[in-house]
């Protein structure tokens, strides 16, 4: 698969969907291409040696600004991957109505091979390079965490930015996914996994779709397999289990564990933390490779690790009825063709894992408004609810239980509002894609329908900006 091009696969899916739109070919070509590509090599002192670090930042589209997209630290990072992920970000933001252009960044390193101090040096130097070329800023380009990065790296980026741009009042909005103490938003960490759950839960509520797949409506009782126990996989597994689904298999890079009775992701996570692997987890069957786990019979399969794990070769052996793409690009276009024939429903990454960027948008808005969500209305809502409840109790001479009282009186905290905003976003996007797909029976799959929605929104933006006649 060495000749596989991720950006080529994204372009292929784009072309497949473009046929179902009536936009000028020139506009379509403009949307497809990456607007700005920044390749850099910079020296960093590691121990007593100087290492040259290879890094990238790609801004795919400027139809809306700022651009938005994560930064990943991985030896697999290359220009093709970063361009593909930046393009997916453009389409993702359009589908979920987040007013950003797509971008992505990457540093070609294995973060496990460096000390925190060395990683900090690399991250700060990368940020300085971005600042030099105006590839970061609350109004130009706003990075976020991705594979191999987290809150710590985002805090370093913010600190570097504020020290080089002193006095910039909205500086905290230059990056998202920060620790809450540094202007982050509560609910960001679990956002992508929660978005995956909300999206699939909404699809599972659709009677006609479930009937076609031979499944009952709702996620309750559905057998779920999750590949990847990172941030996205862990939280997706957690919300599915809490939603009444049965987690029968968890797959990691060094193998998978299967248990028909169901697994608890937190117990598996703690076991892995202690033992360095999920192998020999009590009362489970160990499966030698993660790839084998993808072929086990189940209702819902969530590949939440890396791209290109299901391709034309192994797709015919995948028995899941619904595949929810938690990761970016886990299926190749060849796999899509196989699933169209078998009638497997693929819920595409470009909107399903948009929970991260949606909540990043909320964090960015919080940074620009300089006030925590819920601070203005929490007490007012609680006092109002208490007053309404007291009046009803007086009129009916009946008292509600303390549990009900707590629920009714509760004013929204920041996390409540973030969850609510994310749920609204995922439900709206799911229906928008499904309605378009149902109204045009020639569209072969949900991914193509999602691309059509994205293309229409981005092209409309361009047209309304007067860039094109």
Question: Care to describe what's here?
Answer:
The chain has helices at residues 6-18, 25-32, 79-95, 116-132, 151-164, 191-204, 207-213, 231-242, 265-275, 290-293, 333-342, 349-352, 355-369, 378-396, 402-409, 414-439, 446-464, and strands spanning 36-46, 49-59, 67-73, 101-107, 141-145, 223-227, 246-252, 255-258, 285-287, 300-303, 322-324, 345-347. The chain has 469 residues and is an alpha/beta fold. The protein is built from 17 helices and 12 strands. It is globular and about 75 Å long. Helix 6 crosses helix 8, helix 6 (191-204) crosses helix 13 and helix 16 (414-439) crosses helix 17 (446-464). The strands form 2 sheets. The protein has a 7-stranded mixed β-sheet with strand order 9-8-7-6-10-11-12. Strands 1-2-4-3-5 form a 5-stranded mixed β-sheet. It has a domain at 8-182: Rossmann fold, CATH 3.40.50.
Can I get a quick summary?
The protein has helices spanning 6-18, 25-32, 79-95, 116-132, 151-164, 191-204, 207-213, 231-242, 265-275, 290-293, 333-342, 349-352, 355-369, 378-396, 402-409, 414-439, 446-464; strands at 36-46, 49-59, 67-73, 101-107, 141-145, 223-227, 246-252, 255-258, 285-287, 300-303, 322-324, 345-347. The protein has 17 helices and 12 strands.
Q: Could you please say which CATH topology of the domain at 8-182 applies here?
A: Rossmann fold
What name goes with the CATH superfamily of the domain at 8-182?
Leucine Dehydrogenase, chain A, domain 1
Task: Specify Rg, calculated over alpha carbons.
Answer: 23 Å
SS content category: alpha/beta
Query: Order of strands side by side in the largest beta sheet?
Result: 9-8-7-6-10-11-12
CATH class of the domain at 8-182: Alpha Beta
The total of helices stands at 17
